[in-house]
Design a protein that fits this description.
- The chain is of the alpha/beta class and 176 residues long.
- The chain contains five helices and eight strands; from the N terminus they run ββαβαββαββαβα.
- The protein has two domains: 32 residues; 141 residues, Severin (3-Layer(aba) Sandwich), CATH 3.40.20.
- The protein is 30% helix and 27% strand.
- It has a six-stranded mixed β-sheet. It has a two-stranded antiparallel sheet with strand order 1-2.
- The longest helix is centred in the first third of the chain and has 13 residues.
- The termini are far apart.
């Protein structure tokens, strides 16, 4: 994107573009925060509906397609035999599948035994590691609002490092 000031053309840094986007998103009648144009694919919405309805899988991992125009399902585990798993073994697999230097989104069911009985909660995780390219981080930050339309997600987490994904900390937050 080039801008003209007088007779001079210049290209602003990614940080300046991000600040400009945030400012414009607050002004009525201008571009919104999800103006990146990256939307959920129809298959992604369909798989999420199956995830919510059948409860046979415990997580979904999403990525951008090759030309960054849609969010697609990248990974989903094989169907589980037990609906309730208080050990959350699938969470460790989910975290292991997140790449170190690329952004991803994830939706996962977390279960826990509390004094009132068994509880389960669906959470959304935006994995935007510090090592990811700046363009990819900006695209991810401006596109995560596409997931707000999906029903049943009560908790949203933004993670920059593996420490942000500590299972015990997340469970303590979800089930105080």
């Amino acid at each position: 994107m080039l801008f003209k000031r007088g007779s001079i053309f210049f290209k602003p840094s990614p940080v300046i573009l991000l600040i400009f986007t945030v400012i414009l998103s607050a002004v009525p009648g201008t571009a919104s925060a999800d103006s990146s144009g990256v939307k959920l694919s129809a298959e992604t919405v369909s798989e999420f509906d199956e995830f919510q309805r059948k409860k046979e899988i415990k997580y979904l991992i999403y990525a951008f397609n090759s030309d960054n125009t849609k969010i697609i399902t990248e990974s989903r585990p094989v169907k589980l035999t037990s609906e309730f798993d208080a050990s959350n073994a699938h969470y460790d697999e989910f975290v292991r599948l997140l790449p170190e230097k690329e952004v991803r989104y994830g939706i996962i069911d977390i279960s826990h035994n509390i004094s009132e009985g068994q509880r389960s909660q669906t959470i959304f995780i935006a994995w935007i590691p510090d090592e990811a390219p700046i363009k990819q981080k900006m695209l991810a930050a401006s596109s995560k609002d596409a997931f707000k339309a999906l029903p049943g997600i009560r908790t949203r987490i933004s993670a920059k490092s593996r420490a942000d994904l500590d299972k015990d900390t997340i469970i303590a937050t979800l089930f105080p």
